[in-house]
Amino acid sequence: MENQMFCYQCQEANSNVGCTKIGTCGKRPEVAHIQDLLVYVTKGLSYIAMKLREEGKEVPKSLNHHITYNLFTTITNANFDRDVLAARVEESLELKESLRSQLQNPDNLPDAASWNGTQDEFEAKAVSEQVGVLATKDEDVRSLRELITYGVKGLAAYTHHANVLLSDNEAIDSFIQKALAATLDDSLSVDDLVALTLETGKFGVEGMALLDEANTKAYGNPEITSVDLGVRNNPAILISGHDLKDLEQLLEQTQGSGVDVYTHSEMLPAHYYPAFKKYEHFAGNYGNAWWQQRKEFDSFNGPILMTTNCIIPPSDNYIDRLWTTGAAGWPGCKHIPGEIGEAKDFSAIIEQAKSCEAPQELEQGSIVGGFAHEQVFALADKVVDAVKSGAIKKFVVMAGCDGRQRGRNYYTEFAEQLPEDSVILTAGCAKYRYNKLNLGDIDGIPRVLDAGQCNDSYSLALIALKLKEVFELDDINDLPIIYNIAWYEQKAVIVLLALLALGVKNIHLGPTLPAFLSPNVASVLVENFGIAGIDSVENDLELFFA
Fold it and tell me: Is the pLDDT reported for residue 386 higher than 60?
């Protein structure tokens, strides 16, 4: 049977091959098609932007923002609203035509840069042989083009968050556009694309640094914090996703309203930032990882604000309480607008919250986090002493993403069975598989050091580099660090590429290797970087700790 769609950008690609009828995420074919077209048009827009730069013309910051926002709306679980995505295609085509008119030589452009059409033509174009993953026939070229595209999507998500905090880096934006344009160039060899993949990782490091600087400049350096897991008796709003600026504006507008604010999933680390601690109605964290939201959103009782991914198809029990903003979107849900630099109006969601009951309690107690780079650097002497004394034998980087696949229980069991002289370094929602286990501490150092969101993965790289410096090692791979990382979507892809750019080898990636890696491309990663999958908990523990 002919594919109704084809998508394999996330870890839940059907049968680890690809989703062909409906996405495991809930993405329907018509949404998949318009996302494919948006990516295609954005590549064409990027091609023209690069041509303008070659001609010495300035590319406006607004174009950079438009391209990164387009990419952000197409990452897994971010936006399922076909009408919104089609509007982005239309706006991108208008912008492309305007910029193309400025070229000295607007001829001989690739189809993605020259094609134009109306909304009535979008579907036919989206399913044409030029558009979509399978438009590239050579399996290895396709694999590398998609690896670069997904890495750039993750990078765009990071830079967009920095842009929202009025932080920009023209070199990163220029690279994003260069990389997207390169995926249209049939003259590039597999070796050329491998080199571009590694360059994507280099800019991934720079993008994560840009966001880290923007976050810490705006909200301070994260610090060790105990976060309440229980509930209060007030009506409340639950905020999920990754955008700290949205949280800041929501907290400001709910002050004195009698409405509390709770975080969910990736928003948990907001509690670690000093700037947010002044809000007495910033109540705590509610629930667990993104994939459990159907049950948890239902029991929350109040409205939920999704600032970015991850959205899963909402149930009828709470769809009238689900709000989106920024790149997030679900058809039929209320969306709160606001461009970069504009104030958002959260008054409607606040009014809805006032009419709702307080959240039902899911759990009690608290959880400790806030071990980003500056906080760990402050503990450096203590950590070094513990390593030198043998109290800490290994650090285990278990960052990345969580997901609903049953095999992800591996990470809980792996954490439970780790030797007691090992410490977990984590960031991202992967931590929900083990951050509520009672793993204790080593000489006062918690055995789970949570650096924050996937957006905070830069901290883990800085911690590793700091340890390399302290122990006066020439090679980062000589550190007593194991990398056993869970992945799910495109931000995890750019983190992986960034680690490779920093020279990290022997990373284990699970619960499956990406479906978009062809056998030959996977072999390159294995041979050059020691990339591997996971095995059973018992076999991997023996491998890592033999």
Answer: yes
